[in-house]
Amino acid sequence: MASHPITPAAPDSLPGRLAAANQDAILFVIVATGISHRYWDFTEAAARRAQESQFFKNLSIIGGFILLFATGPGRFSLDGWLASSRRNNPKKPD
User: Fold this and answer.
1) How far is CA 62 from the centre of its chain?
2) What are the CA-CA distances from residue 22 to residues 11, 39, 54, 61 (Å)?
3) Stretch 38-51: mean pLDDT, rounded?
4) What is the DSSP letter of 11?
5) Is 91 exposed, middle or buried (0-12, 13-18, 19+ CB in 10 A)?
6) Are 33 and 59 in contact (CB under 8 A)?
7) Which H helix or E strand runs over 18?
8) pLDDT tens digits, 60-91
9) Nearest to residue 62, comparing CAs of 13, 27, 21?
10) Is the pLDDT of residue 52 over 80?
């Protein structure tokens, strides 16, 4: 399994643009979570539970984005799957 360096790719390359988009998504979800799902402000139990559930859902999304940023797309990405498919089934010349 190939390891990905911690240093980001060049900003103008596709992996660099994806890393930047991933960072933007992390920031967006953090801000949206802080603004929209302030469950500690609710006194009614049902509303508090609903907002708490959404808050923790967003935390798990942030965790997924951080994991993707730290490890890179890897072999389970669409690009990795297509590349392995091409290696295993090369086109025969006509």
Assistant:
1) 7
2) 13, 26, 21, 11
3) 91
4) T
5) exposed
6) yes
7) helix 14-36
8) 999 999 888 887 777 667 667 777 777 777 77
9) 27
10) yes
Q: Are 65 and 22 in contact (CB under 8 A)?
A: yes
- Which amino acid is present at 5? P
**Residue 59 tokens, joined:** 């935390």
Would you say how long the chain is, in residues?
94
Closest CA to 60 of 26, 84, 94: 26
Dump the DSSP string for 29-91: HHHHHHHH--GGG--SHHHHHHHHHHHHHHHHHHHHHHHHHHH-SGGGSHHHHHHHHHHHSPP
Residue 55's alpha-carbon distances to 32, 58, 91, in angstroms, are: 10, 5, 48
Q: Which two tokens stand for residue 39?
A: 């469950």
